[in-house]
Structures are given as C-alpha cells and as structure tokens.
C-alpha cells in the first residue's frame, strides 16, 4: 500500500467519523427527548390548556400560538425575500453601489444574534411603530405592546436572509438560455421572470421556506420581548393579542418553574411535540416541493 492510498483511507476515515459523530449526537438528543416525553403525550395533553400553575394540563395554547405566529411570519417574509432576490439576481448591476449595500445588509443580518433581533423588535416595532400607531389612531395600548404581530415580524426580519439566499440560488440554477428563449419570443423581461424563471425556482424557494419554518418554530429570544407570554388562559384571536408558543413554554418550564420535578415531564413532552410538529411541517413542504418539481419536469 503506497502513501497515496494511506492518505485516501485516512481522509475517508476522518470524514466517516465526523458523520458517525453527528449521527450519534442526533440519536442521543432524540432518544433523550423521546424517552423523557412520550409518557406525557395524550389527547388531553395536546388539546387542553395548562392548569394548576402549569404543573398539569396540556399545551394546546402554545401549539396554536406557534402555528399562528409561523403563518404570519411566512406571509411577511416570503414575498419580501423573493422580491429582493429577484431584484438582486435579475435586475441589479453587480458593481452598482445599491446592489453592494443590499448584499452587505443581507450578509450582516444573517450574522446578527437572535437576541439582538428581539431587542430591535422591542424598540422598533413596539416602541416606535406600535406607539406611533396608537398615538395616530387615538388608541390606548392596542399596538404599543408585545403581541403576535410584532413577534412574527421580528421572526420574519431574522429569517429574511435565508429566504433571499435560497431564492437566489434557485434563480442561479436556471439556465440563461431559458430567459433568452422567452425574450426571443417577444416576452418582456418581467414576463420571462414571471412565466419562465419563477415557476422553475419554486422548488428552491420552498427549500428556503422549510429552513425558515424550522428556525422560526424553535426560536425563543426574538419573541420573548415582542409577544410571547408566560401564561394565557385564552387563545390569540387577533394579531394584536399576546400568545403562548412551544419554544418559550419549554424555556419557562425548564428555567422558571418552582417545582422542576413536576414540570420536567411536561417540558419533555412539549419538546417532543415541537420536534414532531417541525418535522411534520418540513415533510409537508418537501412533499409540495417534490410534486412541484415533478410537474415542472412533465411540463417540459
């Protein structure tokens, strides 16, 4: 065996060990959550509100609040992110100063810690915009307080770089010949983007949506200042209501509980539900992406 073969086998061994290490860490995490939480899972646990100081009862308000906030976040982040990516890739000149500024802002946003987004949401959305709206509309604390709207917008701002990057990668993968063909047939640039480019980029955009859902579901820091509540006896009905969410509920149960032995099984059960919901939402998005990709292939 020569030196080259030894080096190749050493590289294969190191990379394989790294993969096994990641799989082992994932298995330990999932095993700990499943073993500690499956006994708490029941129909009542999933459909009832917490009771007796959150040492009993269920987590339905937290599930409802998480889904509500994720939907609002997607409504805010996907159109803005896709439009920004289309501008950067299809219209902006690479060396133009505005292009550089936008790309610099996107790169900086991607590196900002999530707790900073929470403080920004508190100062900008609640203190500035919310209280400004209350003053203009002669309201008393309707918008100038933590609520699900401001929490969702804060999550949208935090996840905006992810949608932009995923959409740009999807646009970059579409051959220039497709655009040239549409223009040669008499289509305008916008018509070629709308009817040729964007439909083929949908699978890539959905990949970004999957990542955004996963990150948004588990984040606590951006929403603890902007809308999440310790405990609420009712479900949010309006975007201006506060809400419970699973990530913050788990944080509260594990750090603020006066009786950790009583709340730990509930916290583990809530963690298991959070993982199951996140995986389910990811699977749904992946199925939609696969069907869209299959339909595009059939249409060619």
Automatic annotation (TrEMBL):
GO cellular component, one term: plasma membrane
Compartments (UniProt record): Cell membrane
Record's keyword terms, sorted: Cell membrane, Membrane, Transmembrane, Transmembrane helix, Transport
Principal place of residence: membrane
Biological-process GO terms, alphabetical: phosphate ion transmembrane transport
UniProt domain ABC transmembrane type-1: residue ranges: 63-285
Record-annotated membrane-spanning stretches: 12-38, 58-88, 109-130, 142-166, 196-214, 266-288
A Pfam short name: BPD_transp_1
InterPro entries for the chain: MetI-like, MetI-like_sf, Phosphate_PstA
Claim: Transmembrane is one of the keywords in the record: yes
Membrane topology: Multi-pass membrane protein
Protein family per UniProt: Belongs to the binding-protein-dependent transport system permease family. CysTW subfamily.
Name under which the protein is recorded: Phosphate transport system permease protein PstA
């Amino acid at each position: 065996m020569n030196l080259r073969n030894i080096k190749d086998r050493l590289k294969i061994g190191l990379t394989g060990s790294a993969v096994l290490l990641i799989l082992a860490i994932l298995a330990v995490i999932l095993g700990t959550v499943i073993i500690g939480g499956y006994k708490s899972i029941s129909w009542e646990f999933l459909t009832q509100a917490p009771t007796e100081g959150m040492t009993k009862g269920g987590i339905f308000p937290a599930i409802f609040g998480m889904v509500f906030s994720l939907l609002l976040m997607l409504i805010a982040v996907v159109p803005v992110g896709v439009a920004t990516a289309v501008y950067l890739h299809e219209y902006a000149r690479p060396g133009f100063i505005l292009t550089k500024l936008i790309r610099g802002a996107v790169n900086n946003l991607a590196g900002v810690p999530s707790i900073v987004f929470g403080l920004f949401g508190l100062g900008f959305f609640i203190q500035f915009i919310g209280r400004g709206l209350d003053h203009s509309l002669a309201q008393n604390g309707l918008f100038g307080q933590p609520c699900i709207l401001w929490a969702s917008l804060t999550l949208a701002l935090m996840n905006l770089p992810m949608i932009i990057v995923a959409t740009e990668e999807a646009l970059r993968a579409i051959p220039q010949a497709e655009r040239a063909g549409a223009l040669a047939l008499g289509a305008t640039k916008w018509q070629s983007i709308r009817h040729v480019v964007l439909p083929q980029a949908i699978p890539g955009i959905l990949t970004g949506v999957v990542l955004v859902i996963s990150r948004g579901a588990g984040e606590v820091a951006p929403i603890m200042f902007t809308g999440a509540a310790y405990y609420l006896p009712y479900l949010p009905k309006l975007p201006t209501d506060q809400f419970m969410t699973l990530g913050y509920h788990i944080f509260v149960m594990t750090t603020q509980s006066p009786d950790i032995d009583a709340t730990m099984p509930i916290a583990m059960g809530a963690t298991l539900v959070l993982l199951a919901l996140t995986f389910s939402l990811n699977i749904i998005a992946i199925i939609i992406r696969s069907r869209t990709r299959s339909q595009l292939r059939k249409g060619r």
